[in-house]
C-alpha cells in the first residue's frame, strides 16, 4: 500500500477525488475509468527517454528508490501521478505515452515531458521537448485511435502541472529571449494565461470535465525571492489568475468544468462539494507541503 506518503500528498489526492465526486458519486475501489497526465518534469515518467534532450534522467541516481530503477522520472522514486494512480485504485502506474499500446488510452496515459511549457519555444535551450499543445494533440490522437467513448472521457481524471519552464527556461534565460524583449512581466503572465485557457478549452472539447491544475513549483518562488526579486515579482503576476474561470474571455462552458488548483509545495485546498466518498476528509482550508 502507500506507506510513507506524506499527509499533504494525501490531501492533494483527496482533492483530485473531490473533483471526480463533484459530478457523479463514485464507489470505493477504482475512482475513475481512466487517468490522463499532462505537464513537465514533475510529472514526466519516461516520455523524454526517446527525445534528443539534456532533460533526460533515465540513469542513476534517478529512480534509485523506484522498483524498476531509472525510468525517466525526475525523482528518486515515485512521483505525484504514481501515487494518485495507486490511491485512485488503478492496478499500475499510468504509463508514458511514448511506446504505449493504442488500447492504453482506455485506461490512461502520461503525456508529460521534462522541459515542457505553455509556450512552444519554452526550453528550446534543452533540446527536444513536448509542449502542452503537443501533449494535447497526442491525447487527441490517442483517444481517437482507441475509440474511447465520450461518456467515459467525461468520467476520467486529468492532472496538469505546467508553467515553471516558461519562466526558468524562457522568460528569464540569459541571454534574454525574444519573449523577454517583447513582454513586460505582466504581459508575459497574461500571454501564458491566455494560452493556458485556450488549451483547457481544447481539453474540454475532448471530453475533460474533472481536471486538477497544479501551479508552478514553489522551489522557483523560493529561488526567485532569495536571488532574483524581479523573477519573483513576475511569477506573482501569474498566480492570481491561474483558475481558468478567471482567465480572459473564459466561457461559461469552460467554467462548468470541475477544476481544482494545487501547488507543488504549498497549497490552499477548498472543497466546493462533498469530499472523497470513501473516507472523511477535513474540508477546512489547509496549507501543506506537497512536494515528494
Automatic annotation (TrEMBL):
<protein>
    <submittedName>
        <fullName>(rape) hypothetical protein</fullName>
    </submittedName>
</protein>
<keyword id="KW-0378">Hydrolase</keyword>
<dbReference type="GO" id="GO:0005576">
    <property type="term" value="C:extracellular region"/>
</dbReference>
<dbReference type="InterPro" id="IPR036514">
    <property type="entry name" value="SGNH_hydro_sf"/>
</dbReference>
<keyword id="KW-0443">Lipid metabolism</keyword>
<comment type="similarity">
    <text>Belongs to the 'GDSL' lipolytic enzyme family.</text>
</comment>
<keyword id="KW-0964">Secreted</keyword>
<dbReference type="GO" id="GO:0016788">
    <property type="term" value="F:hydrolase activity, acting on ester bonds"/>
</dbReference>
<feature type="signal peptide">
    <location>
        <begin position="1"/>
        <end position="22"/>
    </location>
</feature>
<dbReference type="Pfam" id="PF00657">
    <property type="entry name" value="Lipase_GDSL"/>
</dbReference>
<dbReference type="InterPro" id="IPR001087">
    <property type="entry name" value="GDSL"/>
</dbReference>
<dbReference type="InterPro" id="IPR051238">
    <property type="entry name" value="GDSL_esterase/lipase"/>
</dbReference>
<dbReference type="GO" id="GO:0016042">
    <property type="term" value="P:lipid catabolic process"/>
</dbReference>
<keyword id="KW-0732">Signal</keyword>
<keyword id="KW-0442">Lipid degradation</keyword>
Amino acid at each position: 500500500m502507500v506507506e510513507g506518503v506524506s499527509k499533504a500528498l494525501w490531501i492533494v489526492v483527496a482533492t483530485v477525488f473531490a473533483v471526480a465526486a463533484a459530478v457523479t458519486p463514485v464507489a470505493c475501489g477504482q475512482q475513475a475509468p481512466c487517468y490522463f497526465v499532462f505537464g513537465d518534469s514533475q510529472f514526466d515518467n519516461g516520455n523524454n527517454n526517446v527525445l534528443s534532450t539534456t532533460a533526460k534522467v533515465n540513469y542513476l541516481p534517478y529512480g534509485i528508490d523506484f522498483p524498476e530503477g531509472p525510468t525517466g522520472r525526475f525523482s528518486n522514486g515515485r512521483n505525484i501521478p504514481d501515487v494518485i494512480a495507486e490511491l485512485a485504485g488503478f492496478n499500475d502506474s499510468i504509463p508514458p505515452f511514448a511506446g504505449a499500446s493504442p488500447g492504453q488510452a482506455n485506461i490512461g496515459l502520461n503525456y508529460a515531458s521534462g522541459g515542457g511549457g505553455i509556450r512552444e519555444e519554452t526550453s528550446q535551450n534543452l533540446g527536444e521537448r513536448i509542449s502542452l499543445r503537443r501533449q494535447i494533440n497526442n491525447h487527441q490522437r490517442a483517444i481517437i485511435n482507441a475509440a474511447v467513448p465520450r461518456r467515459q472521457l467525461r468520467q476520467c481524471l486529468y492532472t496538469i502541472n505546467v508553467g515553471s519552464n516558461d519562466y526558468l527556461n524562457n522568460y528569464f534565460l540569459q541571454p534574454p529571449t525574444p519573449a523577454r524583449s517583447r513582454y513586460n512581466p505582466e504581459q508575459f503572465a497574461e500571454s501564458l494565461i491566455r494560452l493556458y485557457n485556450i488549451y483547457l478549452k481544447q481539453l474540454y472539447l475532448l471530453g475533460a470535465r474533472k481536471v486538477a491544475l497544479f501551479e508552478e513549483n514553489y522551489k522557483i518562488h523560493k529561488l526567485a525571492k532569495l536571488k532574483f526579486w524581479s523573477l519573483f515579482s513576475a511569477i506573482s503576476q501569474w498566480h492570481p489568475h491561474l483558475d481558468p474561470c478567471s482567465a480572459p474571455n473564459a466561457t461559461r462552458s469552460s467554467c462548468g468544468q470541475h477544476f481544482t488548483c494545487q501547488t507543488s509545495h504549498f497549497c490552499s485546498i477548498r472543497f466546493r462539494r462533498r469530499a472523497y466518498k470513501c473516507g472523511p476528509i477535513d474540508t477546512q482550508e489547509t496549507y501543506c507541503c506537497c512536494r515528494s
